[in-house]
């Protein structure tokens, strides 16, 4: 009986340990999910605010479409995420129910053992005739053995009662947790259904806006042609500034006088995926490289950097310490341009309506260098580029994840 009781105890302790491991695992997973959901909700909030700004102009535009596309994308991520979260909750409920079944079996075994102990005591004591059982001893030694025997059984029964009580508490706690998790899942399901309907409405709105813009194909092509001319002006400016600085750096290496001069921002090369964004809020409205035009068919656009659509009057910041090498005005879409050198690297900030630094200034990371411009359609956007000497790089490889 003692071996059986110990075995039941081991079973109980095993499942208590298993319960703790399961709870901690799911608690960590749910904590990770909450952080991910927070990031998605932040992106939705940013896209909604920017979309509202473009819609306030009472005219359809590419800026409005990119903001709406971003909101649709973020809402799609949220719906998929909520479904994933429900799957996690379902797994958590299933695991807890398995623990409940195991604890119920453990409780049944404990009760059966306790019943056997009571029966054995009654049998040994002559149907509860404990006094008769004691005083029927043939000697004092036998009497004390019988007293000790009854005492041990009393202690064992008390421990068994405590074990039964503890398992009952565990069961009740697990049942309450399952009930709470089921309620959370019900709320989550309603939220997912609501977001799914919102996503359907957003996609219909997106389709309608796309159709309206498609009917303005002639104007869009005209705007695109002008934008390409403005970008070419910017590219020529960057190429000239970088060429001069590379030549100057080569000359400086030959000069002993300049050989020990400290280079501001020379640690730039080790900052991949760690650079802050040049604006506090916003999203990528045009990615690096070649990609299809979002409206015009069979038209490919090329971007030497990334465009970040943001809110009006948003401050533009240097992504790292460096030296301002050029400030220029490029007529048209690019507006004011700031080029900052970081050792062998350069960062470019275009589409600024206002500049707050001057050529030759040393700047720190996150220092404000200007304010983003807003076009006639209400779109506020900054063009950001990264160069390694004369090699054009993808800024997405350098900016930290948002």
From TrEMBL:
InterPro entries for the chain: Cell_wall_metabolism_enzyme, Dup_hybrid_motif, M23ase_b-sheet_dom
Gene3D superfamilies listed in its UniProt record: 6.10.250.3150, Glucose Permease (Domain IIA)
Domain of life: Bacteria
Cleaved signal peptide residues: none
Domain M23ase beta-sheet core: 303-395
Coiled coil segments of this chain: 30-57, 86-113, 210-244
GO function terms (MF aspect): metalloendopeptidase activity
Pfam family membership, one: Peptidase_M23
UniProt keyword list: Coiled coil, Signal
Keyword Protein transport (UniProt): no
Keyword Transferase attributed: no
Descriptive protein name: Peptidase M23
Species in which this protein is naturally found: Fulvitalea axinellae
């Amino acid at each position: 009986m003692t071996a059986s009781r110990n075995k039941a105890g081991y079973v109980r302790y095993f499942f208590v340990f298993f319960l703790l491991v399961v709870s901690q695992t799911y608690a960590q997973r749910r904590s990770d999910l909450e952080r991910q959901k927070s990031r998605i909700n932040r992106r939705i909030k940013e896209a909604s605010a920017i979309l509202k700004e473009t819609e306030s102009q009472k005219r359809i535009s590419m800026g409005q479409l990119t903001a709406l596309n971003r909101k649709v994308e973020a809402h799609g991520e949220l719906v998929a995420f909520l479904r994933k979260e429900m799957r996690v909750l379902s797994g958590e409920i299933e695991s807890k129910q398995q623990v409940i079944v195991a604890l119920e079996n453990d409780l049944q075994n404990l009760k059966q053992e306790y019943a056997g102990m009571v029966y054995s005591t009654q049998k040994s004591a002559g149907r509860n005739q404990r006094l008769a059982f004691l005083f029927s001893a043939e000697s004092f030694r036998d009497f004390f053995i019988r007293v000790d025997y009854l005492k041990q059984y009393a202690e064992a029964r008390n421990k068994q009662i405590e074990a039964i009580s503890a398992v009952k508490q565990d069961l009740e706690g697990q049942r309450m947790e399952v009930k709470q998790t089921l309620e959370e899942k019900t709320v989550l399901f309603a939220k997912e259904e609501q977001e799914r309907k919102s996503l359907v409405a957003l996609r219909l709105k997106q389709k309608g806006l796309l159709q309206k813009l498609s009917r303005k194909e002639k104007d869009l092509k005209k705007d695109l042609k002008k934008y390409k001319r403005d970008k070419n002006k910017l590219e020529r400016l960057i190429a000239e500034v970088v060429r001069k600085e590379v030549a100057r750096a080569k000359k400086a290496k030959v000069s002993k006088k300049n050989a020990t001069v400290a280079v501001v921002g020379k640690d730039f090369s080790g900052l991949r995926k760690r650079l802050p964004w040049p604006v506090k809020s916003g999203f990528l409205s045009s990615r690096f490289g070649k990609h299809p035009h979002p409206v015009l068919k069979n038209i490919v656009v090329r971007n030497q950097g990334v465009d970040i659509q943001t809110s009006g009057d948003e401050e533009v910041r240097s992504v790292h310490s460096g030296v301002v090498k050029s400030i220029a005005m490029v007529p048209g879409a690019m507006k004011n341009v700031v080029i900052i050198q970081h050792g062998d690297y350069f960062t470019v900030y275009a589409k600024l309506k206002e500049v707050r630094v001057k050529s030759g200034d040393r700047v720190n990371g996150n220092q404000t260098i200007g304010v983003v411009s807003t076009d006639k359609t209400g779109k506020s956007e900054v063009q950001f580029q990264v160069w390694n000497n004369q090699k054009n790089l993808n800024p997405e490889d350098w900016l930290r994840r948002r």
